[in-house]
Write the structure tokens for this entry.
Amino acid sequence: MVKASTYTVTALEDKVGMRVDRYLADAIEGLSRSRIQVLIAAGWVTVDGAVLGNASAKVRAGQRFHVDVPAAEPPRLVAEEIPLTVVYEDADVVVVDKPAGLVVHPASGHPAGTLVNALFAHCGDNLSGLCGVTRPGIVHRLDKDTSGLIVAAKNDRAHAGLSEQFAAHSLERAYQALVWGVPRPAKGEISGNVGRSPANRKKMAVLARGGKPALTRYKMRRRVGTMASLVECRLTTGRTHQIRVHMANIGCPVVGDPLYGGGKRRLRGRGRDFCDIAAAIQSQALHAYLLGFRHPGTGKTLRFQSKLPCYFNILMERLDVV
């Protein structure tokens, strides 16, 4: 990757104790705090000749920072004409209602056929190039089998503005989840650090040590038959698999969840009707139905809601009679 520009900043006494990311964002015009954080994570920031590894480190007097900003690379993605349900779009952002089964970003095992490939085709040249890579500006993700609302940035300003809101947890995000059992109490908070499970590296878990702090607020909407409940979950943090892990941790895993749903154990002692319904579930019943954020260009608050998808309603109808 080629450097586009370099900034050098020496910390003065009056900046001692500030977070490095905030200090550099204040000191360098045109670089937001979120962009500084991305550059630090990518190894493009040094302090006194050593690579800076922690955006939250405190500034000390006399420290000399070098910030390299890489030039944008040509896109490596292939544009694919994948149908999108666009809820809102302007010159800065695009809000999409993602179906279950669509991967958000290319990765090992999913090099194509993703939401990003679809956005690349949909947005054309209007792409965010934050941190030197030209790509649609994905600032948050949904699991492959989670449906619902997701926002992407179409330029660097929008990308940085949305990233700042996610870092500050100032966005409004709410999900509807169909879970096994009935949560007790019916309304509450689930906290506990979430990190990679030591027993299964493909799973996340609530950890007694390590991981990152996570908080989910939930509220039961209604009982669904005798076996399940419809629950609203609101995130104050955004950890990998957070809702799925937290709901499973209180004994109410998301229906259809292949990792945390209980699998065959849920079928033991159940009637034939219940087993037939459980066997027919092809996607986890988790839907990002509400998304609200401050527009990074206009400052106006935008708020969107998405109806539950058909598969979700059909599943609840079948469970209502069990």
